[in-house]
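Reopening this one. Same input as before:
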Amino acid sequence: MGEVWQAVMVGPHGFRRKVALKMLKDQPKSDEAGDALIVEARLGALLAHPNIAATHELGHQDGQWFVAMEWVDGPTLRSLTRSLGTLPPRAIVEIGVQAAAALEHVHTLRVDGEPAGLVHRDVKMTNLMVDRHGVVKLVDMGIARFTADETAVAAGTPGYMPPEQLTGDEDARADLFALGAVMYTLAAGERPFGVGSRAVLRLATLRKMLEDPRFLGPVDAAVPGLGAVVRLCLEPDPDARWESASALGLALRGILRAQPQSDSLAQLVAAAHGDALGPGSMPVDSDSVAVPRIRATVSEPSEDLVGRAEDLARLRARLAAGARLLCLHGPGGIGKTRLAMAAATPRTAGRDEAMWYVDLGAAHSVEEVCVAVESALNMPPLSKHSVRQLGYAMAACGNALFVFDHVEAVAPVLASTLATWMDAAPQASFLFASRVRLGLNEERFEVDSLTRDQGTRLFRARVGRDLTDAERAVLPTLVQQLEGIPLSIELAAARGRLLDVAQIQGRLTKRFQLLAGGPRDVPERHRSLRASLDASWAMLGAAERAALTQLTVFSDSWEVEAAEAVLDLSGIDASDGIPETLTALADHSMVRFDPLTRQFSMLDTVREYATAKED
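Same output, byte for byte:
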């Protein structure tokens, strides 16, 4: 067995360093114990991280091997909690964040450019220390192993080791299980499985324990949201746990952001040991691990959102009333993205929550949806059970609003994914912007064209110059001809730098040629009116396309019976009838349906586009 002494490393010219000196307690009767100490020193020397106690020297003196390590001037977690009892919620989560950072460094170690596959195997309350500056230190690489080392024997501490570690089949996820047990102990005030052989036996009933709400109840009572994170650490199946320490750390940082300010870890260490921090000390800045707020590919709206004040007020009211699943529905270019971003911006939403923006414009499958969410949350890619794991990561963000934009391409596969996320993250809300109705049990918010006055204000805000009296007189008519579509108005305003309003109006006979040339820093579908409609057309089936081109015969609104009289879909392999086809077109925002009059209508823009397709 090893023992640790405080010692002083000395050198020339008065060099002195306080170190922890680890040596064998008794003179070994064989070389095996000495070899183990040498291996520990060699492993420790490979690691260099502020949350891992450094290894300074391996030496041999008077027949005794020793390792000189960083002296951590502070208590172990067990000593700290014995002195102070249950720690404040913020301190509990901060310990988890720093410990996860240490494990990420261990697990991602590379030797000679190749992944080392190093596992600590003994993460526990006595192997995590907090120094006088509030920095958590992982110590004791005594039983660490490389996963490729088939000669290593099974080892670990009962009560912290997962089932697979009993047979020596562990990988990095075993350390995440152990850290989950540490987090449980810090929050609940007791170890989750007990100690010794009793802890080993309880692993056989781990699945049943996790399904009992009373098991993780004390964890959530101490730190709201932490139970879901700890549960994913303690899953009996390694494939169902957090895939990496980085993913776990991200989830914990989300919880940390929601915690109220309290005594820092440095202050807690001082309180436990009666040793106030001296001058020149540098406590860890807890704000440095705060989760960033909304990520957006468009600017945060303020004065940029023109003509939508009433819509914004209604949408904010729906969110404030507790809507968990809300879909902004409307045709391309109608302004769904800007409206969603305005409603979600912390400055305007009036809600104490995290905001996340996820662009699904390039996604076509559940896997690609998950990749987009991982990117927004700045998570490493997950490969297995990623939908459920992302749900728990969302839960760790607390009272969060997730804005999903350009959802239409993945609407058919979104139902089960969203159900999983809503179940895993009961405090999260979801705001979708889509050209297509999702077909879920969502609340709908129809985004319509701007009024003539609203469109006039938008044009004047975008044209970049003062208009003449003559232009101001013509402008309302131009906006009406553009049908109040914000994309059309903005593209027309871009032409206003060279053309006056009357000249723009005169060129509307070539609408799609005129309304093009949008900014290059936006998606292709937002650069021209034709590209926007092309994206919607691509999502239609054969029957919907045929029906849309034939419906151009109506210059005004029509009823179902009139459509049935003119539509001929006989040459198309379509299982749905005409009413269903009309509904699909309305769901795709290609035609409009008025529930009061029971009539359908089509924008002139769509009519012109569909007529060209028919030709």
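So the earlier flakiness isn't reproducible anymore. For the record, Residues 134 and 248 are 21 Å apart (CA to CA).
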